[in-house]
Design a protein that fits this description.
80% of the residues lie in helices and 0% in strands. It is globular and about 60 Å long. The chain has 12 helices and no strands. The protein has one domain: ABC transporter involved in vitamin B12 uptake, BtuC, CATH 1.10.3470.10. Helix 2 runs parallel beside helix 4 and helix 10 runs parallel beside helix 12. The chain is mostly helical. Its main location: membrane.
Length: 268
């Protein structure tokens, strides 16, 4: 196995974009991951990532932008999940299980009809710096800004909702609005992180940094910021490992996140 000098890749445009996209994805996903972990919604990352891949496959099928259709699919699914859970009292996992199965069926069907089982489709599954554009990086910067703006404006509401919706409602907070916005942030986070991390592995950034931080902290503030730090660390470490070993960036980032999680268990 041939090892590569990772810093050589930083001399190229795609290497810079790979680092920026991975780090931004790590920051966004690990931030919203704190909400996901405390609400016990870990499966939502896997569900939305598969929905996004169905959108990507549909984009290939009609010859349009895969990212655009992935965003349409995930935003629609996010709204549906929110509506059924808030208005119809159907638990998240039930709706996600249905969407998970249906989206995988749609993805296989659209890829089959478009005859696109090649490297381009696989790059969306496992992540590839070669398909990250300047526009993708700009979108990630925008979503990162909006994600942290969301937390800044709704910090107390998010804190109360994650521990008790009833207390949040009794305190006069708009639980439905905050939950709706959280689902929108999740949808954007999953879709725009797919090129850097891959549809199959993006949910690892939504779960593992937050899970690691949860094991090591005792209050919400430190939990949030440590999760974001772990998201940053696993992303930067993963993308450099992908350069060194010439492996998909998504796999390297996931393994880095897993290593951090295993390390967090040593505290016990």
């Amino acid at each position: 196995m041939e090892l590569h000098n990772p810093f050589i890749y930083l001399n190229y445009d795609f290497g810079i974009k790979a680092v920026f996209s991975a780090v931004l994805s790590g920051l966004i996903c690990s931030a919203i991951g704190t909400y996901i972990i405390l609400r016990k919604m870990s499966f939502i990352g896997a569900g939305l990532s598969h929905v996004a891949f169905a959108g990507i496959a549909f984009g290939f099928f009609i010859g349009s932008s895969p990212t655009l259709w992935a965003l349409v699919f995930t935003l629609t699914s996010g709204v549906v999940i929110w509506y059924l859970s808030i208005k119809k009292k159907i638990h998240y996992d039930t709706t996600l299980g249905i969407l998970f199965a249906a989206s995988m069926g749609l993805a296989v069907m659209f890829l089959s009809l478009s005859n696109n089982y090649g490297s381009e489709a696989l790059s969306y599954l496992f992540g590839s710096p070669l398909i990250v554009s300047n526009f993708d990086v700009l979108l990630l910067i925008l979503i990162a800004f909006l994600t942290f703006l969301f937390y800044m404006f709704f910090w107390r509401e998010i804190y109360l909702i994650t521990f008790s919706e009833d207390i949040a409602k009794a305190s006069g907070y708009n639980v439905e609005l905050v939950t709706f916005l959280a689902f929108l942030v999740m949808s954007f986070a999953v879709t725009l992180s797919i090129k850097a991390v891959g549809a199959l592995l993006v949910f690892s950034l939504l779960v593992m940094p937050a899970a690691s931080a949860f094991k090591l902290t005792k209050n919400y503030n430190s939990f949030f910021f440590l999760s974001v730090f772990f998201g940053f660390a696993s992303s930067i470490l993963g993308v450099f490992l992908s350069f060194i070993f010439d492996m998909p960036s998504g796999a390297a980032i996931t393994l880095s996140s897993f290593f951090i999680f295993l390390t967090s268990l040593l505290r016990d």
